[in-house]
C-alpha cells in the first residue's frame, strides 16, 4: 500500500513539474512578444523627426531700391549677362507702384432693376421728309397729321413725353404726329418740318431702366468730361464686352455711395426680366454686370539691360540703364517678413508639442512593457524555484519507491 501511495505521489509531482515547465514556456513566449513590442516602440522613436526652430535668416531678404527723381523703383530680379555687345552686365527687372485709372467690371447681387417707359428725343433726317407743296408732309412715305388730343394713344404719349421734356408741352399747338414702323407714335413740329435741317422727333421709349435699388438711373451724358473719361477707359479695358460694343445711346449711369456706375441697356434688360416671379419682377433677379473707372494702385514693371556696379560685399552700389545716361545710387535694405516668421514659429511650437507628446506616449508605452516584463520575470523565477523544489521532492519520492521495491521484491541478500 505504501508503494502505491509513493507511485501516486511521484506521478502527481511529475504532472506538476510538467505544468510548471509549460507555464514557463508560456511566460517566455509572452516575454518574447513584449520584446517585439519594445523593439517596435524603439523603431517608432527613431522614426520621429525632431522639429527645427525657424531662423530669421530664412525670412530675411535683401532689397535694392533707388529714386529716379519722381518715383522709388525697387529691383525685383537681376540676371548676369555674358559678353553683351553693348557692355551691359545685367538684365534688371524693376518696378514701382502707381495709381492707374482703370476700368473695372463687377457683378451686383440683388440689383432690383426696375424698367419703365420714358420720353425720348431724336431727329428726323431732312432727306426723309417730303412736302406735296400744299403743306402736307410725309416721312418715308408715312403721312404726318396734326396732333389729335382726342386720340387716347396720342394723348398718353404726349403726357409721358411732357414729363421728361417740360418744354414739349409748350409746343402743343404746333405738334404733328406720325406712326413709326414699330407702331410707336412720334411727334414733331410744323416749324421743324418746314425748316432746312433735320426735324425734331419726340416719342415714348419702352423697356428703359428707371432705377436700380434706390438709385435713379439716367442716360450717359458724353458732354460730361468726367463721365466721358470713365466711359472711354472702360471701353479700352473691356473692348469685347457687351458694354463696349453697345451704342453710346444705350449706356446708363447711376450713383452709389459717391461712385458712378455704368451699365449697358442689354445687360440691364436681361437682369430686369430674370426675376422668376414676374408679379414682383425686381425680386430675386440675376446678378447685374456693371462697370466703374477708378484709380487702382498698380504694380508697374519694366525689364532693361543695365551696367551694375557691385561692391566687395556682393551688393549693388549703383546702376545705369541702357536708355538713360543717369547713374542711380542704390540703397540696400534688409527686410524680415515678421508675420511669416511668427507663423513659422507658431508652427514650430505646435510641432514641438506634438513631438513631446509622442515622446511621452512612447515612454509611457515602454514603461508599461517593462513593468509587464518584470512581472513575468518574477513569475518565471517563482516557477524556477518551484521546479527545483519539485525536482528535489521527486528524487526523494523516487528513493522511497526504490527502497520499497527493494524491500518488497528482494528475496535473498
Name a few traits of the molecule.
413 residues, alpha+beta, 7-stranded antiparallel sheet, 6-stranded antiparallel sheet, 7 helices, 19 strands, 39% helix, elongated
The biggest beta sheet is recorded as: 7 strands, antiparallel
Beta-strand residue fraction: 25-35%
| CA gyration radius, whole angstroms | 51 Å
Question: How would you sum up the global shape?
Answer: elongated
Strand numbers in spatial order across the main sheet:
18-17-16-3-2-1-19
Euclidean distance between termini CA atoms = 23 Å
What ranges have pLDDT less than 50 throughout 5 or more consecutive residues? none
- Mean pLDDT equals 88
Tell how many strands the DSSP assignment holds.
Answer: 19
SSE string: HEEEEEEEEHEEHEEEHHEEHEEEEH
Sheet/helix structural class: alpha+beta
Number of helices: 7
How much helical structure, as a percent, in the residues? 25-40%
